[in-house]
Write the structure tokens for this entry.
Amino acid sequence: MEFRVDLNQSVKFRVTWKGVRVLSKYHTEIWEKVNGIGNLTFTDGYATLKMGEFIQAFGSYTPEEMEELICGELIFLDNEVTLNENGEPIYHVGDLVLTKAMVTEVDDDIGDVKIKVGLTEMWLRESQVVRK
């Protein structure tokens, strides 16, 4: 069976106090290196990171060490959006935002696609459009 994971996909997991220290160190290093683009959040006892960031933070630990850092399973979030206290979406730099758009025109010569989202129309490269 094949299983694919997008490294930008969010993963949620319970973390021990040792794991919190690992995440704190990792998040501080990311903050210093890339000016705060790290996506660490804690909600209802779960930590949430992008899968790529999870691998960077925990990738050097053995399975036995991981048992001391996280509790239970990883929960892969399917394009769930984190909401603030007002129920509005929270976006981070580098997030992939999915929306329904209607293709209104195609320029086959240069590979551009004109899409309409609500009342707004815009041209995108065909490579930027994912058909579902």
Remarks:
- The two ends are 22 Å apart (CA to CA).
